[in-house]
Secreted protein
Amino acid sequence: MRHSGRRVKRATVLAAGAAVAGLLTAACSSPDTTGVEPPAKDWAQLRADAKGQSVNLFMYGGDKGANAYIDDEVAPTAKKLGITVKRVPVADTQDAVQKILGDQRAGKGSGGAVDLVWVNGENFRTGKQADLWLCGYTGLMPNQKYLDSTDPTLTQDFGTPVDDCETPWSRAQFAFVYDSAKLADPPRTTAALTEWIKQNPGRFTYPAPPDFTGSAFVRQILLARAQDEPVPPAYSKKAYETVAPGLWKDLNALKPALWRQGATYPKDQAALNDLFANGEVDMTMTYGPAEVPALVDKGQFPPSTRVFVPEDGTLGNTSYLAVPKNAAHREAALVLSDLMLSPELQYAKARPGGWGAYTVLDQERLPEQWREKFASLTTPETTLPIEELSRNARPELSGDWVGPLDKGWKQEVASAP
């Protein structure tokens, strides 16, 4: 997710994981039997029913660009359709999934507090396994015609089939951020990056998993080792036991050269950004490189800030919008999902000076006026165009990998002497 996700975000995910597992077991063993009626499958009727409804949109609250985009662009546009958007910030998307699972366990088959979730990866998979999501509606959405239905990055979410249970919303690409005034020529490969870290002690660190960005960095290092030890996309204990020891060895080899010698790590991406802004480290990292120009414009990052991706490629993913089955305002949530896929709001999301997040729309399928608008978008020199960012992009592993890798990092790296 973002991010969806990463937008994957963050410090409490391991503790919360046990709670989710318990709720998932209960949800799967005690399915909802309230028999709540699905909304009508006539789009005109859905739009009519949506008028006057409020949508509780649960989303990670730590992305200021995303928050401003929802408040300043999405909410006013939705208001024209008679829909009120209430943005509900959460520290981790898992918090929203827990809330839905808790309602399900309590037998609350309708009137749920969560109407719409910005989601991807393991959180979508967890909800799908527990039968939380309203499925079978995305094909009705008028703006779906602007998507490439054959694009595997839109049909698979961290290895989990989407199966018409969520709507693509935004693309993300993992990247590194540096100050070109201090580092004229950044490392060209992931292997060169690890060598640079060792040769420049104290000038690099990464957020502690399970922070989404820190977790993505660990997976980036894992996949960069794939020439020696290929990583199966689907998780298994055998696969983990095959590839994880080498990963922990590599990450532990970096510890003495990290900021504070790896004795402590930033708690999240925001904390790492602060270290970079204060000049304590020479790099930060992000799953949303389109946000960098705004951070420069606001004065948080210096004007000499630039983005780079190793030539061997970085992780990429798509984040989505999902409607819980028990949502109190399902009609409005579905209509809002489609609205947020519209060329108008996808363009507002992508333009420099706004959030700057990458569109999921296939521009060849757009009307000419919107093709021209998207083509006119310029990429500030402080970041890179999506074509360059996504060159040699690596698909995310199955969401089943995330938890074991986060837990393994804590045991084998953070706790290692």
